[in-house]
């Protein structure tokens, strides 16, 4: 049996349709991978911003806890705005002491990101002197 010359020519390469389908699959795959990488990068940046805000809030919380003065403070640190408020924490009468009081220290750090407002809020209780 002899091989037909036309049959041999068909087996040498890919048809135009096969090449177009391969490019379409490649394009879709690369598009999905690009979206995955870009969302991963965006989430990493958001996580870094939350970490920076948390460090600032912890620092402001430590300052307020050391001062133990009732009142509020606020300020800015770069792109972040912070507010720290110290007030007496209300307890039932059975738990009140004449020499010490429980202070509530709340610190909030906020910032704008992508048209929205984000914030980190810390709350702690410390013993303080009665005024």
Which features characterize this protein?
about 45% helix, 2 helices, about 35% strand, 4-stranded antiparallel beta sheet, alpha+beta, about 130 residues
Polypeptide structure, described:
- The protein is an alpha+beta fold and 131 residues long.
- The protein has one domain.
- It has two helices and four strands, in the order ααββββ.
- Strands 1-2-3-4 form a four-stranded antiparallel beta sheet, covered by helices on one side.
- It is rod-shaped, with a radius of gyration of 32 Å.
- The model has no long low-confidence stretch (mean pLDDT 85).
Instruction: Report how far the terminal alpha carbons are from each other.
Output: 110 Å
Structural class: alpha+beta
Strand fraction equals 25-35%
Contiguous uncertain segments of 5+ residues: none
What characteristic shape results from the CA principal axes?
rod-shaped
Question: Could you outline the blueprint of secondary structure elements for this entry?
Answer:
Blueprint: H1 5-10, H2 16-67, E1 71-77, E2 80-88, E3 100-113, E4 116-129
Antiparallel strand pairs: 1-2, 2-3, 3-4
Brief digest:
The chain is 44% helix and 34% strand. The protein is built from 2 helices and 4 strands, in the order ααββββ. The chain is rod-shaped and about 95 Å long.
């Amino acid at each position: 049996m002899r091989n037909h010359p036309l049959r041999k020519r068909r087996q040498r390469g890919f048809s135009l349709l096969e090449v177009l389908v391969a490019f379409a699959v490649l394009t879709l795959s690369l598009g999905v991978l690009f979206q995955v990488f870009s969302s991963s990068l965006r989430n990493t940046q958001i996580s870094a911003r939350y970490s920076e805000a948390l460090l600032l809030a912890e620092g402001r919380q430590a300052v307020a806890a050391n001062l133990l003065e009732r009142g509020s403070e606020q300020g800015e640190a770069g792109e972040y705005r912070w507010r720290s408020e110290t007030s007496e924490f209300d307890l039932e009468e059975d738990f009140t002491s004449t020499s010490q009081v429980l202070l509530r220290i709340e610190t909030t750090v906020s910032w704008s990101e992508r048209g929205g407002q984000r914030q980190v809020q810390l709350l702690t209780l410390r013993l303080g002197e009665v005024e």
